[in-house]
Amino acid sequence: MKRIGVTGLIQLFPIPILIKKYEKPFKREFEFLEQLNYVEQQENQNFKTRDTYLLKYYKEFSDLKDFFNKSIDDFTNNVWMTKQKLTITQCWANRNPPHSRHHDHIHANSILSGVFYFKRSNTMPPIQFQRSLNSALSLTPERYNNVNTDTFLVPLSDGDLILFPSSLRHSVPVNESNEERYSMSFNTFCMDEMGNEDNLNHLNIKEFYK
Prior knowledge:
Layout: E1 18-21, H1 27-34, E2 38-41, E3 46-49, H2 54-57, H3 62-78, E4 86-96, E5 102-105, E6 112-119, E7 127-130, E8 151-154, E9 160-165, E10 169-172, E11 181-190
Antiparallel strand pairs: 1-9, 2-3, 3-4, 4-11, 5-10, 6-9, 6-11, 7-8, 7-10
């Protein structure tokens, strides 16, 4: 149990988001990404790759995969303070043409999710996060901060990777620019032993495949 021994404002149970910058050039990866087969998502008028296991089958993304894995380890080790490793499961690319969007959603069956930006300028929509639980009563703020807002826009640029808990609601507003917005998303899961028998939350997935 955490004991509070100071006075002043304390923000309990904050939701962590980590942004990392990919320092290598990725023109070759982006040109390959553009040529992949995309399927239209009619609800949003955007597109996702038909193949949703890009890091598993395409060696063209091997450097990015290493960067993603190191960033995930940074999050789990230094933010969540755990040595349990997360493994990337599905990974796919998104193409948002002008006038398209992405609806409000979470990533089910995943622990930590990530989005890497190949092409996103200031004229394109940023990723938007939504508060999962809203109060039935609310006061009208004179100005907004990360305590009283229900939505939060995070402007990112080419080469940025954003990591966030998969249960955090997020969306992409309408792309009102004249350019296509490209990103790559992925989910993760833990294959390590989790929990313990005494707390009745023990899970060892690997033992079911012996």
